[in-house]
Design a protein that fits this description.
It is a single-pass type I membrane protein. 34% of the residues lie in helices and 18% in strands. It has 2 domains: 73 residues, 2-Layer Sandwich (Phosphorylase Kinase, domain 1); 213 residues, Orthogonal Bundle (Transferase(Phosphotransferase), domain 1). The chain contains 8 helices and 10 strands. The chain is α+β, with helices and mostly antiparallel strands.
Length: 299
């Protein structure tokens, strides 16, 4: 163990050395064994490995006398979370699209069921937020923190929901979670909930993209509507009853790429789950936007 680099409700994260390389070690409180077990299970899912999903190395239980430590060892990314990165970094269009496209690529892989001899279930994240996405050295993202994930195998029709009672982060909860109308018997409900949260993440990223020499300071979604430690009730009032969403800055209208990003996030955070875009649709749209960005403009 070298130094502590983060902490959350589950425990602490350390940067450590393993065989000469830096790795991240997530240490769970012994009371969070359900989260540790779930996250380990998800990372060990067949065919889960993907460049935009955090690379898993090992899970371990260390006992030191009366203290039991539950560890998850993963790849280490110096830039930290997308939340950390956006606070200290402004983006050009290319960097913005790379963060967005790589994030949705990871989510798309999670959401997709792969039917083969070794089948991969469809997985919904259920706690998607900028703090649970890491930024790699090359400016691409990978999705982390799978402790609340839900698995689904279409052949059996079984939805595998974790035993732990945590339900995600209030600020990123979609209307159907806040007003308790989410259909727990239908796996698509969990997928659609992820897409709402992803719309908020797109908003966080796009605000940090400079256009016409202007950029917004980093803020969390709904920063201007609820306090930092917002209650469940306050979020429900804003999102479900008043049906408010983060505001789109005027400057985005005069930048073609930001205007498209704005349209994309609005379609992700639609009130009705059935109206939200799928991860694959967002991935294809962002790929097209990146292509247009790379095409030289003719005089």
């Amino acid at each position: 163990m070298v130094q502590q680099i983060g902490k959350g409700r589950y425990g602490k994260v350390w940067m450590a050395k393993w065989r000469g390389d830096k790795v991240a070690v997530k240490l769970f409180f012994s009371s969070e064994e359900a989260s540790w077990t779930r996250e380990k299970e998800i990372y060990l899912t067949v065919l889960l490995r993907h460049e935009n999903i955090l690379g898993f190395i090992a899970a371990d239980i260390k006992g030191t006398g009366s203290l039991t430590q539950l560890c998850l060892i993963t790849d280490y990314h110096e830039n930290g979370s997308l939340y950390d990165y956006l606070q200290s970094t402004t983006l050009d269009t290319k960097a913005m699209l790379k963060l967005a496209y790589s994030s949705i690529s990871g989510l798309c892989h999670l959401h997709t069921e792969i039917l083969s001899t070794e089948a991969k279930p469809a997985i919904a994240h259920r706690d998607l937020k900028s703090k649970n996405i890491l930024v790699k050295e090359n400016g691409a993202c990978c999705i982390a923190d799978m402790g609340l994930a839900v698995k689904f195998v279409s052949v059996t029709g079984k939805i595998d929901v974790p035993a732990n009672t945590q339900v995600g982060t209030k600020r990123y909860m979609p209307p159907e979670v806040l007003d308790k109308t989410l259909n727990q018997n239908h796996f698509y409900s969990y997928i659609a909930a992820d897409m709402y949260s992803f719309g908020l993440i797109l908003w966080e990223i796009a605000r940090r993209c400079v256009s016409g020499g202007i950029v917004e300071e980093y803020q969390l979604p709904y920063y201007d509507l609820v306090p930092s430690d917002s209650s469940f009730e306050a979020m429900r009032e804003i999102v479900c009853i008043q049906k408010l969403r983060p505001s789109i800055p005027d400057r985005w209208n005069s930048d073609e790429c930001l205007r498209r990003m704005g349209r994309l996030m609005i379609e992700c955070w639609a009130h009705k789950p059935s109206c939200r875009l799928t991860a694959l649709r967002v991935k294809k749209t962002l790929a097209k936007m990146s292509e247009l960005q790379d095409t030289p403009k003719s005089n």
